[in-house]
Specification:
With 220 residues, the chain is mainly α. It has one domain. 45% of the residues lie in helices and 9% in strands. It is built from ten helices and four strands. α2 (8-24) crosses α6 (100-106). The radius of gyration is 19 Å and the shape is globular. The termini are far apart.
């Protein structure tokens, strides 16, 4: 039954819900477009390449939350400086994620699945962990309703793998409802995740650097 659901039924749910939500939320999206353009400038949409299903890259769409402020050398200032009060509001309320409904409608993403992380992270996943790329990445997922950025990387990836192994219609509906609840409660949201945890590639680099081979490994 799981294999049947992860095919056409799951895709049909994604198309129906994302299409309906884009129509219903179109006035809000238009308002956000104007506000972002006035308060943060152009472009309104933030596009970035992320690894999709089977690691194939796609361009994720989000509402812009930061300015383009640069230093005297023309380098972008740190995220914490460029993130304005309005940008924090967009992140805190998850309104910046709404354009991802278009990614779902186009087939790059699903409503529910492992979150699409940065391209540079991909090579730091172990082979067993790459199972998370067997399904489309999601706007929300099991990790997001279990603590979001408050969780360690290992635990988050473990939850992604749990989702892939137990994906079902009932689980997706449960995650969607829990997501709405957490958004309204603003629970587990880190406005600037980089301020409270290492990036995934940095953490894995440190782990490799600090690992000490056993005598058996050293002799082989």
């Amino acid at each position: 039954m799981k294999r049947i659901y992860t095919g056409m039924p799951k895709r049909a749910l994604d198309v129906a819900v994302s299409g309906l939500m884009l129509v219903i939320l179109s006035p809000l999206l238009a308002l956000l477009w104007v506000l972002v353009r006035v308060k943060l400038g152009s472009p309104v949409l933030f596009r970035q390449q992320r690894p999709g299903r089977f690691g194939v890259p796609f361009n994720i769409c989000k509402m812009r939350t930061m300015t383009n402020e640069r230093d005297a050398k023309g380098e972008l200032l740190p995220d914490s400086v460029r993130l304005t009060r309005f940008g924090k509001f967009l992140r805190r309320t998850s309104l910046d994620e709404l354009p991802e409904l278009w990614n779902v409608l186009c087939g790059d993403m699903s409503l529910v699945g492992p979150r699409p992380l940065l391209m540079r992270y991909y090579r730091f996943f172990t082979e067993p962990e790459k199972v998370r790329f067997f399904v489309r990445p999601g706007i929300t997922g099991l990790a997001q309703v279990s603590g979001r950025n408050d969780l360690s990387w290992d635990y988050r990836i473990g939850l992604d793998l749990d989702y892939v192994g137990s994906c079902s219609f009932a689980l997706d509906i449960r995650i969607l409802f829990l997501t709405l609840w957490r958004v309204f409660q603003r629970d587990g949201v880190q406005i600037d995740p980089g301020a409270v945890m290492l990036d995934f590639d940095e953490e894995r680099k440190d782990r490799a650097a600090n690992s000490v081979p056993t005598c058996h490994a050293a002799n082989n």
